[in-house]
């Protein structure tokens, strides 16, 4: 189908879809009139029952821990598949023309950028670790903290050069960390089974409300998820950077 | 005005969908897909919102103050992170497709053989 | 619904349209980064700090960087093919 025909079909179908969505949206309850009981029940139960202050963390890692297990493994599978594809591209190219690639001389960034990057990396790492550790007392958790921690490597790449990034990052260690983080989730669930409960039932002692060590099983799972998300993003970044570090000879 | 978030979610969905259909570059297509994903975040959070309520984190307010629904936030939170890694996977696929066919045009990528 | 929420929602709608209507991928990555920031603002205004924290780290830094790296990889690949053809 030619682009112009495709655009016309898209506009017509889009208008129809938009019409139905408009009609459906106007039939919903008005914005802000939340009537469902589940939110109120969980908001009342989590601080009293599990002694945690961040109810979102309680839902993610305790009440609905099985769903988060599935989500984490989607993440793991996506990272593994992306790494597999990019490594396949790399080995195919190395087989086809091994003689015409060479390591490029990267541009040296300015000293001011280096200094700024150093300060940013320190702040980012500290903030990321704070967010992962304080999952139950303030907005934070494994997913958010893992993303912020991974952005520290992004800052290293942006303010330094690729060689610096490869020097501070051991790829085998990153892969090991990701596997350990992903396995820790299921291992915790199985440990709960071994302790006499069902899979992912919280049998560890809950602390007291307001302490960062409250929540029991949530803390273990949270640490595993933080490790896995960080390592997953860093691995993706490393794989993409491997692709772009080789250029043509004589450039 | 009462239904503005749902209308914005519908708008984001339709414009992202239009972008996917009329895209001439695989990477542009992947970003339009992420716009469609963001429409689901808007919709989820709009469902769980309660007027005059605070975030479901009882750090400096006592437990029992009216708060918004935490379940939709848990869904949207994992959705954002997993969506980013799936975008990375799609980008890797686009890079591989470009290597096979030499073009990033969705119409020019060859179909699989054998 | 307050004025702040309405304004932020309209900004998000414009940001999404901007991402779609920018056809050049390298420019679109920057518009996507801005869109991520607008989404983060929206999540904060909707009382969802956890979602805002993830979206901030992911949408403004990680995803645009991956897009630019993928683009640079395809350009290197295209230049490599031209170089091989002209030899």
**Shape estimate of chain A:** globular
Biggest sheet descriptor of chain C: none
End-to-end gap of chain C: 65 Å
Q: How large is the count of helical segments of chain C? A: 3
Q: Label the structural class of chain A.
A: mainly alpha
Question: Describe the biggest sheet of chain A?
Answer: 2 strands, antiparallel
Give the low-confidence spans of chain A.
98-103, 247-251
Average pLDDT confidence of chain A is: 85
Number of strands of chain A: 2
Q: Average pLDDT of chain C, to the nearest integer?
A: 91
Q: What is the radius of gyration of chain A?
A: 24 Å
What fraction strand of chain A?
Answer: under 5%
Distance between the termini of chain A: 40 Å
Helix content of chain C: over 70%
Structural class of chain C: mainly alpha
What do you see in this structure?
- The complex is a heterotrimer of chains A (251), B (114) and C (87).
- With 251 residues, chain A is mainly alpha-helical.
- Chain A has helices at residues 3-26, 37-50, 55-63, 65-96, 111-133, 142-159, 162-168, 171-194, 217-244, and strands at residues 101-103, 246-248.
- Chain A has a two-stranded antiparallel sheet.
- The two termini of chain A are 40 Å apart.
- Mean pLDDT of chain A is 85; it is low at 98-103 and 247-251.
- Chain B is built from three helices and no strands.
- Chain B has helices at residues 4-21, 26-47, 70-101.
- With 87 residues, chain C is mainly α.
- Chain C is 90% helix and 0% strand.
- The longest helix of chain C is centred in the C-terminal third of the chain and has 38 residues, at 49-86.
- Chain C is elongated and about 65 Å long.
- Chain C starts with a helix and ends with a helix.
- The model of chain C has no long low-confidence stretch (mean pLDDT 91).
- Chains in contact: A-B, A-C, B-C.
- The interface between A and B is large, with 69 and 53 residues.
């Amino acid at each position: 189908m030619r682009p112009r025909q495709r655009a016309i079909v898209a506009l017509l179908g889009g208008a129809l879809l938009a019409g139905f969505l408009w009609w459906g949206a106007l039939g919903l309850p008005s914005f802000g009139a939340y009537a469902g009981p589940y939110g109120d029940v969980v908001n009342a139960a989590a601080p009293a029952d599990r002694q945690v202050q961040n109810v979102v963390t309680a839902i993610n890692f305790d009440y609905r821990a099985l769903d988060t297990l599935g989500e984490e493994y989607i993440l793991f599978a996506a990272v593994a598949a992306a790494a597999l594809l990019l490594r396949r591209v790399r080995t195919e190219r190395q087989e086809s023309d091994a003689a015409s690639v060479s390591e490029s001389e990267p541009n040296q960034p300015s000293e001011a950028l280096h200094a700024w990057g150093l300060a940013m990396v320190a702040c980012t790492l500290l903030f990321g670790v704070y967010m992962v550790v304080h999952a139950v007392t303030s907005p934070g958790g494994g997913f958010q903290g893992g993303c912020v921690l991974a952005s520290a490597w992004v800052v290293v790449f942006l303010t330094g050069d690729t060689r610096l990034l490869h020097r501070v990052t051991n790829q085998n260690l990153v892969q090991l960390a990701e596997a350990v983080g992903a396995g820790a989730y299921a291992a915790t669930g199985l440990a709960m089974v071994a302790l006499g409960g069902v899979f992912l039932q919280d049998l560890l002692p809950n602390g007291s409300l307001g302490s960062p060590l409250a929540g029991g099983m949530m803390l273990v799972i949270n640490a595993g998820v933080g490790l896995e998300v960080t390592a997953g993003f860093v691995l993706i970044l490393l794989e993409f950077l491997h692709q772009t570090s080789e250029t043509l000879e004589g450039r | 005005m009462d239904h503005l978030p749902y209308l914005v979610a519908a708008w984001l969905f339709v414009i992202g969908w239009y972008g996917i259909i009329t895209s001439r570059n695989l990477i542009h297509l992947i970003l339009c897909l992420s716009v469609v994903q963001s429409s689901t975040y808007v919709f989820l959070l709009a469902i769980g919102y309660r007027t005059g309520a605070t975030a479901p984190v009882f750090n400096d307010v006592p437990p029992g103050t009216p708060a918004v629904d935490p379940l939709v936030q848990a869904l949207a939170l994992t959705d954002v992170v997993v969506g980013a890694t799936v975008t990375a996977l799609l980008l890797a696929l686009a890079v591989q497709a470009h290597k096979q066919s030499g073009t990033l045009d969705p119409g020019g990528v060859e179909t699989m053989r054998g | 619904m307050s004025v702040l929420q309405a304004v932020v929602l309209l900004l998000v709608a414009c940001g999404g349209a901007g991402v779609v209507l920018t056809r050049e991928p390298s420019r679109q990555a920057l518009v996507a980064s801005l869109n991520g920031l607008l989404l983060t603002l929206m999540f904060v205004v909707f009382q969802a700090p956890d979602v805002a924290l993830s979206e901030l780290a992911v949408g403004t830094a990680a995803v645009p960087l991956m897009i630019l790296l993928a683009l640079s990889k395809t350009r290197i690949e295209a230049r490599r093919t031209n170089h091989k053809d002209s030899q």
